[in-house]
Amino acid sequence: MPKTKPKPKSKKKTQAQVSNNIYKGIAIVLVIFLIMTAIILKMSIFKAYPVTGQKQKLSISNGETYTGFIDQLAKDDKVSFPIILKLYRKIFIHDTMKAGVYEVTKGMNVRQVLEMVSNIENAQMSRLLVIEGTTAKQLIQSLKKDPLVEKSVIQLPSGEMLKALNIPYDHPEGLFAPDTYFFDKGATDKQILTDLYQRQMKILDEAWEKRAPDLPYKNKYEALIMASIIEKETSVDSELRQVSGVFYRRLKLGMRLQTDPTVIYGMGDKYTGKISKQDLRTPSAYNTYTINGLPPTPIALPSKKAIEATMHPDNSENIYFVATGNGGHKFTANLNDHNRAVQEYIQVMRSKN
Q1: Which of 123, 133, 172, 250 could form a disulfide linkage to 255, CB 3.0–4.6 angstroms apart?
Q2: Could you report the per-residue pLDDT of 142-161, keeping only the tens digit for each?
Q3: pLDDT confidence of residue 44
Q4: Of 122, 149, 168, which residue is a domain's last?
Q5: How far apart are the first and last CA of the chain?
Q6: Are residues 113 and 159 part of one domain?
Q7: Per the domain annotation, does 26 fall within a domain?
Q8: What are the two backbone dihedrals, phi and then psi, of residue 104, each rounded to the nearest 5 degrees?
């Protein structure tokens, strides 16, 4: 018998199989995509926020941004895929981070934390950072901007404010201790400023009691003035007593202090970042190039270290100092050495330009 030819496959059947394979491929790709998306979301938005114990405080500073906050989380290996968090924030959170102290409980995920810090009502405490060498004016401005602080005295002129605080001085500069503080939500500006004032007075009283003999300051307030000048002259802790010694000996010798920070403070809003020879020649109550002795008030909020250095100047013979250009200062005992140090500073600065 002749062999019968197999029937050719139906064209429709072949097309159906191709379509089936395409659908299966799409389904597989979709499943893989969904799995990868779930993994990414689990490692970013829905990742548990790291908490030590059952709950902990999260402090957000003034001016802190979501971008910086997320980048820091990623840097600390607390989250992966920071770009996903940034996209989520951009799409779903239409506000800035609000400064304050928040409570993060165990089990909260990163998404919940991001949303929590966008609403000041969620804050449990107010965080106040008072930086060494900043001014009382800057402190007052920080309190005015803090929505968690109840305002009662900071809107008053400075003299009236001090009276309302029962502070027996005419000028607020230097009277408040720099540090990082946490206050309960709803604390008043009066409570906060009273606390900072009492802390600064305690530091000043204790340092004054333990002061070295024969200091040229009539009272502890004059020592506070000097401490503020020392604070502004150097940010290097190891130099505080050296700077103190220079000014101590200048006062003893009847020399003018000739310190730029006092001139800048006296210029107020006129100071734009540079100080000219004309500025140094222009008389003011704070221009220590034109007045003898100390200015009438402190020029900043001095730290405990600066106050203690004021009470214990070093024992050298130095009466000059100038910046090195590489951080820190060079201290000298005579004008010739000082002038050489100034030329060295100029050369260093020229080499950097």
Answers
A1: 250
A2: 999 888 899 999 999 999 99
A3: 72
A4: 122
A5: 104
A6: no
A7: no
A8: -105, 120
| Helix/strand/coil for 73 | helix
Give the Å distances, CA to CA, from 86 to 33, 67, 114, 265. 21, 7, 10, 42
Confidence of residue 80 (pLDDT cuts 50, 70, 90): confident
Encode pLDDT of 85-105 as tens digits: 899 899 999 899 998 899 999
CA distance 72 to 353: 33
149 located within any domain: yes
Is residue 30 in some structural domain? no
Return d(Cα 45, Cα 145) in angstroms, integer.
31
**Six token digits for residue 199:** 């802390």
Amino acid at 143: L
Rg from Cα positions in the chain: 32
Contact 245/318 with Cβ under 8 angstroms? yes
